[in-house]
Amino acid sequence: MSRSDAPTGVSARIRAAAVILTLLTSAVLTGCAGDAWEQPAPAPSAVGALGAGFLPEVEPTPEATIEPTPGSWSDVHPSAGYRVVLLSAGDDEATRAARNAVGQWAAEEGADLRTVDADEDAVTGIVEAIDLRPDLIVSASADLVEALTLVTASHLDQQFLILGGEVPEPTENVTSVSWTGGAFRGAGLGASSPYDASTFTAERVSDAVRLGVAAILNDLTGHVYRLD
Question: Which one-letter DSSP state was computed for residue 182?
């Protein structure tokens, strides 16, 4: 009996079995792939080089404040697949500007960006971001500075970038980019200038993201970089 002469019931069972096998194979492959961030990835690297004037002539000491020449960071980009978590709390003017700048930067650079909302509890949000094991965690809210001061020193293998704020004694894994009006250090702690949300302009925060990432990709971490 030829295949074309096979009973209808047998053909139907064969087709059904083939469909089930296809579905099972797809499920197995999906399960193996899992979350892409759970898979090993190459260490990130800098594409491009820092320009003249990014660093002072004298090698900066740990925790130093550095004022790079404007634009000296512009030619540095992350390598493909750079994994970044945007950590934020609240929805004030400054936080929105920082979130937008990070999102735009990630889209332009092809970075793999995820977000963590730390509105309910800052420390819990930071720990959630660390558990994702990204290449970089970017803090976009002044409300997170005090909690970052508590948590970052215990996670030296995780790089952090703080936009518009500073921890009082940054460890080697914490890099800050600040400016006049954007240098919050936490309640009761002195700052170089009063906090001013209106200084978080799209251009300034965009520069802050690019400057900070350029520094981190070149292992120039643990410093405060000033945009003024």
Answer: B
Q: How confident is the model at residue 35 (pLDDT cuts 50, 70, 90)?
A: confident
Spell 167-202 as b/e; 16+ CB within 10 A means b.
beebbebbbbbbbebbbbbbeeeeebeeeeeebbee
Q: What is the number of H-type helices and E-type strands within the chain? A: 5, 9
Mean pLDDT of the chain: 86
124: Cβ contacts below 8 Å, ≥ 6 apart: 118
Domain boundaries, the chain: 3-34, 46-226
User: Tens digit of pLDDT for each residue in 144-192?
Assistant: 999 999 999 999 999 999 999 999 889 999 999 999 999 988 766 666 6
Q: What is the pTM of this model?
A: 0.83
Looking at the domain that runs over 46-226, which CATH code has it been given?
Answer: 3.40.50.2300
Give Dmax over CA atoms of the chain in angstroms. Answer: 91
Cβ count near 100 (within 10 Å): 15
Distance between CA atoms of 68 and 49, rounded to whole angstroms? Answer: 14
With a CB cutoff of 8 Å and minimum separation 6, the contacts of 196 are 180, 181, 182
DSSP conformation class of 16: H
DSSP β-ladder status, 77-78 and 46-47: antiparallel
